[in-house]
Every structure is written in structure tokens, then in C-alpha cells.
Design goal:
Distance between the termini: 9 Å
Number of domains: 1
Number of strands: 8
Helix content: 40-55%
Bound molecules: BIS(adenosine)-5'-pentaphosphate, magnesium ion, zinc ion
Mean pLDDT: 97
Shape: globular
Order of helices and strands: EHEHHHEHEHEEEHHEH
CATH superfamily: P-loop containing nucleotide triphosphate hydrolases
Structural class: alpha/beta
Largest sheet: 5 strands, parallel
């Protein structure tokens, strides 16, 4: 099973991914997480990606596409994967469509998480992330038991560099400009399911579960 999570920054893709991969036993592939790890490690990829990410711009397609191709070919993806944050441009989606048959895969469903814009800004500027395991928190909506400490692994929570108000605003613009056209792309292929993201975390997950259980 290959599932894509689509939706604007702050829609709750990472939050829902944590729950989906557990329930449906999928391998999690988040290009954002992979790129942030590369930045942290200071690798060649990370050095190239950083300037784009800090400005809220997309990293060039050729870099991202190679990451995803390599990851999908690894043996643990044989039973299924969940893509979060990829594809994000029509070129990336076309690449995926052309690459998948060669590795005996196809996209089974695209989940579009839709959330009102004001709410997105509130979610992003209040987000905290675990530096060790990547779990997502929110100062108001999903606060950890102990302030700034991860419930799952005890790691320290931090605020992402691109979660400042200025960068968040730019990321939302970039989504509209470069990513939103994927809604039509996948609608035309009969693969899109819209999910109402303006609900609490469990409500969103219930709706996602019922879509995936029907596949
Ligand atoms: P990426 O890491 O993918 O970021 P994004 O798409 O901007 O999405 P976010 O991770 O910000 O939001 P999310 O939907 O995961 O929300 P979350 O669950 O955390 O990409 C970052 C950058 O990397 C890009 O800008 C780009 O530069 C680069 N990049 C990545 N992929 C690329 C690609 N394919 N091509 C080119 N460049 C690429 O939730 C947000 C907050 O809300 C959390 O605090 C959470 O606790 C809270 N929350 C979640 N759900 C709810 C709810 N239902 N109710 C209340 N609060 C909620
Ligand atoms: Mg995310
Ligand atoms: Zn953690």
C-alpha cells in the first residue's frame, strides 16, 4: 500500500502520520524530516537544502526526487509506505508516476488534509518538535506532560527554524503557488480523498482510518 499525505504546512500531516504508520504498519517517508536531518548533520545535501528551507522555499526537485527514489527501493518498503511532503510539485508527481511501475508499485490513495488558513498559522507558530524522535507537539493543542520534554522518549523539544511567522506566511504562499495544483492532478486520476482537518487530532484520524480501511 502506498499512501500520500497532501496538505498545506501545519495541516497535521506529521501528526496523523505517527498514528497511521502504527495502525496500518507502513514505513514513514517524510522528505521534510530527511532534509532536516541532513541539515543537522551538515552533509552536502543538507548544506544545499538549508538556504531554501530557511526561506520557506522548496528544495530543487532533482535533489528531493533522488532521496525518494532511493528510499522507496529499500526492502522495508515492500509492504507499504506513507509519503509525507512528497510530491510537492507537478514535476515531482509526474516523476513518481513514471518511477513506480519499475519498482512494482502504484499510488493507492492521496489524503488531502484541509484546514482553514488562520488555524494553520496558529498551529505552526505554536508547534514544538522532539529533537530526538521527531514527535510533534503544540503548546496549546498537544502539550507534553512535562514542559519542553518529549512524552515518548524524554528528548528536548525545539521550535523549527521555519516556524517563525514570516517564514510560515511564505510557506503558505509557496503551497498555493507550487503544490495546490496537485489536488487537481490526483482528482483527475480518481485517487484523492478530502479529509476535514478542522477537527481535533482524533477526529481527523477517525476519518483517515475509515478511508484506509476501505482500500
Ligand atoms: P515539511 O517538513 O514537509 O513541512 P510542511 O509541509 O510545511 O508541513 P509541516 O511539517 O510544517 O506541517 P504538518 O502538516 O506536518 O503539520 P504537523 O502535524 O506538524 O517541509 C519543510 C521544508 O522542507 C519545505 O518548506 C521545503 O523547503 C522542504 N521540502 C520538504 N519536502 C520537499 C519536497 N518534496 N520538495 C521540495 N522541498 C521540500 O502539525 C502542526 C502543528 O499543529 C503541531 O504543533 C501539531 O501538534 C498541531 N496539530 C496537528 N493536528 C492538529 C489538530 N487536528 N488540532 C490541533 N492541533 C493540531
Ligand atoms: Mg510535517
Ligand atoms: Zn521524542
Amino acid at each position: 500500500m502506498l499512501i500520500i499525505l497532501l496538505g498545506p504546512p501545519g495541516a497535521g500531516k506529521g501528526t496523523q502520520a505517527e498514528k497511521i504508520i502504527q495502525k496500518f504498519s507502513l514505513v514513514y517517508i517524510s522528505t521534510g524530516d530527511i532534509l532536516r536531518k541532513a541539515v543537522k548533520e551538515g552533509s552536502a545535501l543538507g548544506r544545499k537544502a538549508r538556504e531554501y528551507m530557511d526561506q520557506g522555499q522548496l528544495v530543487p526537485d532533482n535533489l528531493v526526487v533522488e532521496i525518494v527514489r532511493g528510499r522507496l527501493m529499500e526492502p522495508d518498503c515492500a509492504n507499504g509506505a506513507l509519503l509525507d511532503g512528497f510530491p510537492r510539485t507537478v514535476d515531482q508527481a509526474v516523476f513518481l508516476e513514471q518511477a513506480l511501475p519499475d519498482i512494482d508499485k502504484k499510488v493507492d490513495r492521496v489524503l488531502l488534509i484541509e484546514v482553514d488558513e488562520n488555524e494553520l498559522i496558529e498551529r505552526l507558530t505554536g508547534r514544538r518538535v522532539c529533537g530526538d524522535c521527531g514527535a510533534n507537539y503544540h503548546v496549546k493543542y498537544k502539550s507534553p506532560k512535562v514542559r519542553n520534554v518529549c512524552d515518548q522518549c524524554g528528548g528536548d523539544l525545539y521550535q523549527r527554524d521555519d516556524d517563525t511567522l514570516a517564514t510560515v506566511t511564505e510557506r503558505l504562499e509557496v503551497y498555493k503557488r507550487q503544490t495546490e495544483s496537485l489536488v487537481e492532478f490526483y482528482q483527475e486520476r480518481g485517487l484523492l480523498s478530502s479529509i476535514n482537518g478542522n477537527q481535533d487530532i482524533d477526529g481527523v484520524f477517525d476519518q483517515i482510518s475509515s478511508v484506509l480501511e476501505d482500500l
